[in-house]
Recover the amino acids of this structure.
């Protein structure tokens, strides 16, 4: 059996290389410098480090001046380029759906005989942990409460009413639903296709092979990868900054207010120390590798999420939660098209778009190289249609359930309860919102501890995944990089988040994310076209006479089964003894 697998695999690799890989003598990382346990790209690695160091130095040295400049830049981008963010993300959804439901949907990532590296459950756990973890924990209560009091202008409802609660759920679903996952899906699909189907480096430069050809290995490719490194690092640092602020608040609130044991101070110094401790844990996980570290922690994350979600569904206002989910979905689906294009230019209410939607879209775009590359790394063996539907639909729907459970419970407390969650949120801030809500239900201390633990594990998996991605980018697109290099980037990410958080606060992190997201949004728009060219070329080869002759020869072999779709396009080549071949 093992011998047959090796024979078939070798045959598939040869077929994929011979017919589908571009004619090039270059290999991923073939110009790398190898020294001191590192395996680095000679341009991307050092230039990225220098520019990151300069940005951090300016932030720390200028202090308040830098913070004021960041605020002004954040507002400038939101006011002048918000329309571009909104338009781009809507285009990404349309493009992804076209890829999934057109003839290209049957193309398999990695080639016709590629096998899935991870089970469906592990795949979903890893992509969800990488894509939404810390953000959902941070905003799932605070965002609906904010809209409950400050109703988005699009809806025009009266604040702190049932209509305001419905609008709050719809707006929150919009920010955490299909649109962010469309950004992730587009990036992940492009990276996976050009790496696994074309044998190109697992970096962003490879996506532009149809336009640049061999020039992806020159300065055009270097610039693309550098922008990607910055977007990844600062998008990740923003999430880590949000996460550690919530961990700090959680420890203080649970330890002091709920248990009466010790009140942990909430200040930047404590948060920097927390980043150091959690980065240390992340470093150990990174050293364990993708299977031993990231996969295992992502699975633990998902179990913890289900435990906390199920607990609140049981002890919380179950009927209200389910009703808010259904009603929120209805309002979301009814307004998704209008919300997706609403800028507030022709009607009042653009404040929510600038302060929330544009920031989110910039954050998702800045975060997309990290999440997209990580999804690409774990998605070999899935068809384009399976990939798109898995990435676009399932996580978005799970997000709505999570938001309804936690945000809905907070709204219930505001409408029919004592209003303590809303009062604490207004008094202390958004980092404490979840813990204040959990306190209103039985076993609040236990659920608060579980929530804090979940934020920490999400912190660790985000750092893990980010280290893996930046490793690929700065090692010339190699799939396997030295352990010491992964550890280096895990420490660097924590250091950047700590310094920016201490020197410039969340404003610096948020501005860095949305600013690097702007040029990257242009790159993603171009990527829509290059991925289309790649899929079209793949389909043409699959339909070619040369490929048909090769498949005819394979079909005559007893140890190989060729699987075709309804239109006779080959979708799989399997070992003849594999039970799955009879499906």
């Amino acid at each position: 059996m093992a011998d047959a697998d090796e024979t078939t695999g070798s045959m598939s690799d040869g077929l994929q290389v011979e017919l589908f890989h571009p004619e090039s003598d270059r290999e991923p990382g073939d110009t790398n410098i190898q020294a001191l346990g590192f395996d680095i790209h000679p341009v991307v690695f050092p230039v990225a480090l220098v520019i990151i160091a300069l940005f951090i130095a300016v932030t720390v040295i200028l202090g308040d001046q830098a913070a004021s400049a960041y605020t002004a830049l954040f507002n400038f981008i939101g006011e002048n380029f918000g329309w571009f963010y909104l338009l781009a993300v809507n285009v990404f959804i349309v493009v992804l759906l076209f890829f999934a439901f057109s003839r290209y949907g049957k193309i398999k990532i990695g080639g016709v005989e590629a096998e899935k590296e991870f089970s469906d459950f592990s795949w979903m756990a890893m992509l969800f942990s990488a894509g939404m973890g810390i953000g959902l924990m941070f905003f799932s209560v605070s965002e609906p409460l904010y809209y409950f009091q400050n109703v988005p202008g699009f809806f025009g409802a009266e604040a702190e009413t049932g209509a305001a609660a419905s609008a709050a759920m719809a707006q929150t679903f919009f920010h955490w639903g299909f649109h962010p996952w469309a950004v992730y899906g587009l990036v992940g699909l492009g990276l996976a296709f050009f790496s696994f189907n074309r044998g190109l480096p697992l970096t962003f430069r490879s996506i532009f092979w149809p336009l640049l050809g061999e020039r992806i290995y020159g300065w055009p490719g270097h610039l693309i990868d550098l922008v990607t490194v910055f977007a990844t690092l600062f998008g990740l640092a923003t999430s880590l900054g949000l996460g550690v602020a919530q961990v700090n608040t959680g420890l203080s609130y649970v330890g002091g207010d709920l248990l009466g044991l010790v009140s942990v101070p909430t200040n930047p110094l404590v948060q920097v120390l927390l980043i150091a401790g959690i980065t240390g844990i992340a470093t150990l996980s990174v050293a364990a590798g993708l299977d031993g570290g990231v996969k295992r922690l992502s699975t633990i994350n998902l179990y913890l999420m289900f435990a906390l979600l199920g607990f609140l569904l049981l002890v919380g206002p179950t009927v209200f939660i389910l009703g808010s989910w259904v009603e929120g979905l209805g309002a979301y689906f009814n307004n998704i098209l209008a919300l997706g294009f609403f800028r507030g230019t022709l009607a009042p209410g653009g404040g929510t778009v600038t302060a929330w939607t544009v920031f989110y879209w910039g954050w998702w775009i800045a975060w997309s190289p990290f999440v997209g590359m990580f999804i690409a790394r774990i998605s070999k063996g899935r068809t384009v249609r399976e990939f798109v539907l898995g990435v676009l639909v399932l996580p978005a729907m799970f997000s709505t359930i999570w938001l309804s459970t936690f945000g809905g419970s907070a709204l219930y407390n505001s409408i029919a309860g004592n209003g303590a969650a809303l009062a604490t949120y207004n008094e202390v801030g958004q980092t404490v919102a979840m813990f204040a809500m959990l306190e209103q239900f039985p076993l609040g201390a236990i659920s608060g501890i579980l929530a804090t633990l979940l934020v920490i594990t999400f912190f660790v998996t985000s750092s893990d995944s980010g280290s893996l991605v930046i490793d690929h980018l700065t090692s010339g697109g190699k799939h396997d990089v030295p352990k010491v290099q992964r550890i280096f980037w895990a420490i660097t990410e924590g250091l950047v988040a700590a310094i920016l958080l201490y020197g410039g606060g969340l404003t610096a992190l948020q501005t860095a994310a949305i600013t690097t997201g702007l040029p990257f949004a242009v790159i993603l728009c171009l990527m829509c076209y290059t991925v289309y060219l790649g899929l079209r070329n793949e389909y043409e080869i699959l339909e070619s006479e040369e490929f048909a002759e090769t498949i005819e020869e394979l079909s005559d072999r007893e140890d190989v089964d060729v699987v075709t779709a309804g239109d006779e396009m080959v979708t799989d080549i399997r070992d003849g003894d594999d039970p799955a071949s009879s499906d």
About this structure: Confidence is low (pLDDT under 50) at residues 1-12, 579-583. The longest strand covers residues 570-575. The two ends are 19 Å apart (CA to CA). Residues 252 and 264 are 4 Å apart (CA to CA).
